[in-house]
Amino acid sequence: MRTLKENGVTVLFISHRLEEVFEICDRTAVFMDGKLVCVKPTQEFSRKTLISAMVGREISDDYPQPKNAPGEPVLICKDLSNEKVCNVSFTLHKGEILGFGGLVGAGRTELARAIFGADPLKSGEIIYKGHKYVPGSPRHALERGIGLIPEDRKTQGVILGLSLRENVVFSSLPRYLTHGFIIDSKKERTAAERYVAELNIKTSSIEQIVKNEKVFIIFNLLFYLLLCFFSSF
Fold first, then answer.
1. Could you give the dihedral angle defined by the CA atoms of residues 206, 160, 119 and 221, in that order, rounded to the nearest 10 degrees?
2. Is the pTM here over 0.70, yes or no?
């Protein structure tokens, strides 16, 4: 890129990696929610002011200190193994966020899918909220209060050919059935409209087909809310 610049070529560099932005770019343009926020010479930004422009509010700390100490163990995994992971053990505590890092192919996604019941486990033990848990299927996991936000939401997180309304209730469909098999359309519509309002989903209508709207990212929040709902039981 520097060689191209020296030869008079303009380069548009798009990134969330701030270190690269400060190292490479002469001018920086900040976008948020599809709108241009500002354009300034990069040296006029500090890391803090650039992040504040990106998120739309002042940021006091990049990594604020946790206010609460982790509580008792909620999820204990011992020696989990299948075709993609081998002898994985960890403990997740109440009030804690646990992240897994690794290169592509290291087994992070496969581990999450196995705990969610999307991929089979060959061996190992899972203790969830003090009870033995055997992930039989994604439906079983949701009923127990375990959700999965897939990394490829376009193919695994939504059904593109269905409407926003149908996608919102799909993973918790039994809650919207009457007489065991008939969908309560009024209850379904009320839920969809509530999520649109609470999560500020950008859509022309809850009947809009998902593939025609840029709403994929909001389903992260939908899965999270469903997880919170099932966890309340």
1. -40
2. no
